Amino acid sequence: MRHAAWLAAVPADDSSTARVTHPASPQSRGAQREAAGFAVDMPPLDAAAHLVDVLWQIGPSMPTGMGAVPISFGEMQAWQQQTGYALGSWEVRTLRRMSAAYVAQAEEARQRDCPPPWLAKEAPREGAKTARRIRAFLRD
Hints:
By secondary structure, the chain is mainly alpha-helical. The chain has helices at 2-8, 18-21, 29-35, 49-58, 73-83, 89-108, 124-139; strands spanning 62-64, 67-69.
């Protein structure tokens, strides 16, 4: 879900010359990548692929006056009643976690310099440790 949220995000433009340097209708990261000729593939799913389909049918998030929030249990219950599709309790909990991951990544991905979620984030201590090792190596 984080992958999909990052690709769907439209990076915020913090420059005062945005209208000059960027098109009037900003594009999502996925659209930008496609326009540049890059393939926009989603990672393969080994299990529970049906939950991704269900999440897209319900919607990965709910709009509010303060921004997007994860889908609610009530929203999932209403979807089940309207479609006649019965979800197990583990599926409902998993959908809620997937939605929360989508919302969190979508918010983070609005920052122009947000790295894609498939790149490993190095912990701050590990980064400092790596920097010390490089300095030590270069001194020798």
